[in-house]
Write a structure and sequence with these properties.
This protein is an alpha+beta fold and 131 residues long. The chain has 4 helices and 4 strands, in the order αβββααβα.
Length: 131
Amino acid sequence: MSDSQVSSLPVGSPQARAGSASKIYRGRRKYGMTARVTVNRRPLNPRRDLWSHWPGGFEWSYGGSGPAQLALALLADHLGDDERAVRLHQEFKWAVVARLPHHGWDLTSWEIDEAVALLEGEIAVEEALNI
């Protein structure tokens, strides 16, 4: 993915488009440390049944195991398609989750749809070119 495409991905803007979103995903740190992620104010399922990257919970703002678990959980919940979520979660981790602000963030369904569309477009081009 080109730098211009990656930098144009939505990453938790404070002006989340709540009017166009059916779900709002929110990540916050309790006491500045413990990460908590909710979807419409309920805890987000980590979906370790699909892939267990990290037993310690969710993380963001870098590209490790905790962010991979968060990327998988966000996509599985949002897409409702486990196979697609598993296929896309590493790219989504780098393009979105690794760029989320450390202190906290909000993502809407609309923002995730936009990021997924860009990622799937890039993957399709790479596969067509055998990159």
